[in-house]
Amino acid sequence: MRQSRSRSALVIATALLASFVTGCSSSSKPAAAGGSAGKGLEKTTLKVASLPLVDGAALHIAIKEGYFKAEGLTVQVEPVQQSIQALPALIKGDVDVIAGADYVTFLMANEKGTLKLRVLAEGATLKANMMDVLALPKSNIKTAKDLEGKKVAVNILNNIQSLTLNQIVKANNVDPTKVKYVAVPFPQMAAALQSGQVDAIHAVEPFLSDAQKKLGAKVVVDGGSDPVADMPISGYVGTADFTTKYPKTAAAFQRAIIKAQQLAATDRKVVEQVLPGYTKIDAQTAAIITLPGFPTSLNATRMQRLADLMTNSGMLQSKVDLSSILFTPSS
Fold first, then answer.
1. What is 20-127+230-324's CATH number, 3.30.360.10, 3.90.1170.50, 3.40.190.10, 2.40.33.20?
2. Tell me: the pLDDT tens digits for 106-128?
3. What is the chain's alpha carbon radius of gyration, rounded to the nearest angstrom?
4. Which of 51, 58, 106, 228 has the highest CB neighbour count under 10 A?
């Protein structure tokens, strides 16, 4: 198991942040919940597609703690293995929000015109050893250099994992074009590694700790290290149609999620309590996994860092106008 485990809570302001960023340094505050729950909401039942990842913990915390109920919302969770699987349903309106959605997929779809993206809340940022490259104990892969010519499993090709890992290996004088990425869903990565289908896996929690526990897999590259440390990787996304048609509902969902993000950021135990229910890991594993950062605001400067990296890497053709993508309630 990793020698370093992030057990201490992040130090986050306990009050609601004064505002959500609408530019690189400006922001706007979501309206506080008040009066009768659900009063004035255009829609009170939401379908939310959710991945079995730690990134979406706030969704399940908000359900457990009654934050959605306090806002007058009923949330129906639709489990998915990859956020890209829920993209067609989001476009058609069959689901309202995707929780734990990787930004790369949706920023690219937004640029292509496949959908008009709205980010309702941030979900996770990279932290050390929460998304690592693992190899089997007897593998000759020991460093980033050893990944050249090797097959490395990622959840989705040409996405957040290869984007960030390429930056790390380049910083270690490795040619990223020599790494052979193979698409393998997170839940199947350990089996793919054990069978020899791939030489290494780029796994995220909780699948990371599970592979270490069951296979004795060793960390060969810290996927949360510089130059991508603290990079925003996933969030709660919807469409412009959804936020335009249901602005009060979207704002209520946002308030509940951010309240849950604040709790996740300051109380690790709350995260541990919900993980077994939707990730299917046991309580012992939940207690030792490395958690991501849980942002408690929509920060355009932080998000711009990812967007710029995507542009520089050729994943986006032009600079993203984040002010049109980050959802800011009108009042």
1. 3.40.190.10
2. 999 999 999 999 999 999 999 99
3. 19
4. 58
